[in-house]
Amino acid sequence: MVNRKELDPEQSPRAAFGALLRRLREERGWTQEELAARMGCSGAHISAVETGRRAATQRFAASADRALGTGDRLRRESRSAQHRSLLEGFPEYVDHEARAVEIRLYEVGVIPGLLQTHDYASALGDSTVRRGVASREHADERIALIAQRQALLERTPAPLVFVVLDESCLLRPVGDRTLMDAQFQRLIEFSERPNTVVQVAPFGIGVRRPMTLPVTVLTMPDRSLISYAESAIRGHLERDNDSVVPILTDYHQLQAEALSRAASVAMISKLRKGTQ
Description:
The protein is of the alpha/beta class. The protein contains twelve helices and six strands. It is elongated.
């Protein structure tokens, strides 16, 4: 116990999870190696999570819950730790997104998370760290959440996903040419799925563009509607149909003004050739 590192659970989400894992393990009188054997990992992995040097994935948390007999306590703590680094209001949106049967996205200036490659998301995360907007830990947690959200699109039945990208999303370079080439390829592959429609709103539509800010509209299993938009400090969910229906109407108008699916893919493919 000479090398035992004391943790401050308030220091970070990782520290809070690590302190809880250590306490639950020690309550059972187990060493790190004994817990690791029950989870099928290494004692070094347990140590890294307990001391906050390594983030706990949902898979790790679920395995720890089974080994410790703690129900879903560690999984809930892992999700909570992840959400603490997110914009206020966004965690609630993510919960709704995971159950939505239709997802409609309009984005300006940046490829939306559901369509980002890992390298694109990482480049954006690195930028927030360099600018002091986010810590390395928070940036990594946001990147991990993007991967989880994308995985949920593979659920059965899969949701219908409609995406309208302002042309600025495609023209804003993120990372090097190789990164953008892979991102454009990802957009093309995503557009080819049977449950997706990807369109580009070109600069040429000018004042006919009914939306100027990014917005998401979800259709839930009971056909109720939820819209989500963000300011600089928080996200806002709107559930009142009288408020959401006009947004949906504007979205349909935006789709009508945007390029067709085929023309949108042709534009993305042309841009991709320019990065090769």
